[in-house]
């Protein structure tokens, strides 16, 4: 049996600690090609215990059995079709395996996808991976895979996605890479602490009084400060292409006479913001000026066109995450119209959506069923850049599972979500997987059956009469208790299931602390305090440190409930 083919239908790369294969890289490899070769070598060793040598293409090549990484001379004759910057291909041609990719990270993604799809390696979280053990590693001799991403730019904001290895493995862009700031930069270039006391006229006039909530964009000095700040930062960081000029996260905008005149009878703040941003874009034609369509600037302006080097970040905020964006009711219809308005003005729209309860990050949030249809809708509308705003560098309700599903959907909007969910839960929750999946199913089906509003800003009390009724919470707890019993001897698995159980405890406490009927159902104030202490103990053991997006520690939460 030769190493290159056990049968006509397969090529054997490694056989019981032996191989005639070498990993070949270009004579002058890029950093990405070099990294890709090292990743492949490392993981094939983890799987088989054998380390394939990495050689430059100009070195002595002892056989024709080779794995080519990137743009080697031999790879030039291999047809890959049209590859996007992050697209990739891997195929077998005669006795050679070619892993190739687009100019950004395509070849690295080719390696990770080959390891996952052909070898069986998985990266579920930054700390949880699956490496199969194989004495023989073979691939089909007819292997020919070409993939391009559903979106050019794909990122999310969770603890796992902030890990670079996890992001590369799951083909995510790093969190707002190629940007110095992502948004809300008025406060960066005209900071309150530096200018408000000496120049209150730079800031918003609200109800006859200057306040540092937003800037007064009709003030020429404000323009100059932002323009000079951009120029300074661009010189410091010349490699960045995108530069944010966008309002603070505050809805109190300027209503001085000059700003009101700029509004005309148009679309509120966007009639002021877009001309301001256009002017900056003209001053920096080789850069892209990014701004927000958010809150008072959510609608496209009537009276302004948009410069070709302006990016519009359209933020999908007040939507019911229990129904898809494409088919949802009044609010969803309104956001579809906002999107259509902006599409008439520009092709450069960056979609910014929210995928967790922003103010109650541990609260049950049954939105997995709408992740796929929403991304499919955005793709159908020609959107090329997507950010799904999670909860940042902290743990929350199903944060690990959602990161995994989101990363796969951002690459391929038609991925099999149910398969991904089952696969992840089996790996992450072990013998409790079925119970966790049963809980997810019960939660989602109840939310759908009761026509619940699933809102990213809402307190759990909003859902006290639908999917978070006490009867339903008791049902969910009984399901997860079965899982907890199954993994009680495994501290790691127990902690993972316990976090989702704590999610229900949190909702129960929040509702009872605001609704007297639910408080009495729990047994009164003394019982509520006992539940708070128990929740505190559970959260410490599950490494949940915050209950809002980056704020409200467990200790602060307990104190707030003692008042």
Explained architecture:
This protein has helices at 31-48, 106-119, 164-169, 186-189, 192-195, 220-236, 257-263, 270-283, 330-343, 368-380, 399-411, 417-429, 433-449, 470-486, 491-512, 516-522, 525-541, 554-562, and strands at 10-15, 22-25, 54-56, 66-69, 88-93, 96-101, 122-123, 129-130, 136-140, 144-147, 153-158, 203-206, 209-215, 242-244, 288-293, 310-316, 349-354, 385-392, 546-548, 551-553. The protein has 563 residues and is of the alpha/beta class. The chain has a 6-stranded mixed β-sheet with strand order 3-2-4-6-5-10. It has a 6-stranded parallel β-sheet with strand order 11-18-17-16-15-14. The chain is globular and about 80 Å long. The termini are far apart. The model is unreliable at 1-7 (pLDDT under 50).
Gyration radius, rounded: 27 Å
| Measured distance between first and last alpha carbons | 77 Å
Uncertain segments are 1-7
Q: Overall 3D geometry?
A: globular
Summarize model confidence as the mean pLDDT: 94
Major sheet: size, sense and barrel closure? 6 strands, mixed
Number of helices: 18
As laid out across the biggest beta sheet, the strand order is 3-2-4-6-5-10
Structural class: alpha/beta
């Amino acid at each position: 049996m030769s190493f290159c083919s056990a049968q006509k239908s397969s090529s054997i790369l490694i056989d019981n600690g032996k191989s005639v294969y070498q990993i070949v890289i270009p004579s002058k490899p890029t950093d990405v090609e070099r990294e890709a070769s090292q990743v492949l070598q490392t993981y094939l060793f983890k799987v088989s215990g054998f380390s394939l040598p990495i050689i430059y293409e100009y070195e002595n090549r002892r056989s024709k059995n080779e794995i080519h990484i990137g743009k080697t001379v031999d790879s030039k004759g291999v047809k890959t079709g049209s590859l996007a910057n992050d697209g990739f291909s891997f195929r077998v041609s005669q006795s050679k395996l070619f892993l190739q990719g687009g100019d950004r990270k395509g070849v690295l993604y080719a390696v990770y996808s080959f390891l996952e799809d052909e070898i069986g390696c998985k990266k579920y979280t930054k700390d949880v991976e699956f490496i199969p053990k194989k004495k023989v590693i073979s691939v089909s001799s007819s292997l020919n895979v070409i993939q391009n991403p559903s979106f050019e730019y794909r990122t999310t904001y969770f603890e796992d996605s902030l890990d670079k290895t996890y992001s590369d493995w799951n083909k995510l862009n790093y969190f707002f890479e190629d940007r110095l700031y992502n948004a809300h930069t008025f406060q960066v270039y005209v900071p309150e602490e530096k200018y408000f006391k000496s120049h209150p006229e730079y800031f918003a006039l609200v109800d006859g009084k200057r306040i540092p909530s937003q800037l007064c964009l009709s003030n020429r000095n404000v323009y100059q400060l932002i323009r000079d700040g951009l120029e300074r930062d661009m010189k410091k960081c010349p490699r960045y292409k995108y530069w944010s000029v966008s309002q603070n996260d505050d809805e109190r905008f300027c209503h001085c006479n000059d700003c009101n005149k700029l509004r005309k009878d148009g679309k509120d703040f966007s009639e002021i913001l877009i001309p301001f941003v256009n002017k900056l874009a003209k001053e920096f034609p080789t850069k892209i000026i990014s701004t927000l369509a958010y809150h008072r600037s959510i609608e496209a302006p009537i009276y302004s066109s948009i410069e070709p080097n302006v990016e519009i970040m359209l933020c999908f905020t007040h939507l019911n995450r229990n129904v898809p964006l494409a088919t949802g009711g009044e609010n969803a219809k309104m956001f579809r119209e906002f999107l259509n308005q902006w599409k008439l003005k520009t092709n450069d729209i960056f979609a910014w959506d929210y995928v967790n309860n922003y103010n109650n990050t541990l609260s049950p949030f049954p939105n997995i069923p709408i992740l796929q249809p929403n991304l499919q809708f955005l793709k159908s509308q020609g959107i090329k850049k997507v950010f799904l705003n999670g909860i940042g560098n902290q743990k929350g309700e199903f944060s690990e599972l959602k990161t995994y599903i989101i990363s796969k959907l951002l690459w391929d909007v038609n991925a099999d979500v149910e398969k991904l969910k089952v696969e992840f839960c089996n790996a992450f929750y072990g013998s409790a997987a079925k119970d966790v999946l049963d809980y997810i199913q019960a939660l989602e089906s109840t939310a759908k059956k009761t026509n619940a509003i699933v809102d990213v800003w809402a307190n759990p009390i909003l859902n006290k009469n639908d999917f978070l009724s006490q009867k339903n919470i008791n049902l969910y707890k009984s399901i997860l208790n079965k899982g907890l019993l199954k993994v009680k001897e495994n501290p790691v698995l127990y902690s993972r299931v316990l976090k989702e159980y704590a999610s229900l405890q949190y909702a129960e406490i929040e509702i009872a602390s605001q609704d007297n009927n639910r408080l009495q159902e729990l047994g009164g104030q003394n019982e509520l305090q006992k539940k708070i202490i128990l929740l505190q103990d559970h959260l410490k053991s599950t490494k949940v440190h915050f209950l809002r997006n980056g704020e409200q520690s467990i200790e602060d939460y307990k104190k707030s409930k003692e008042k």
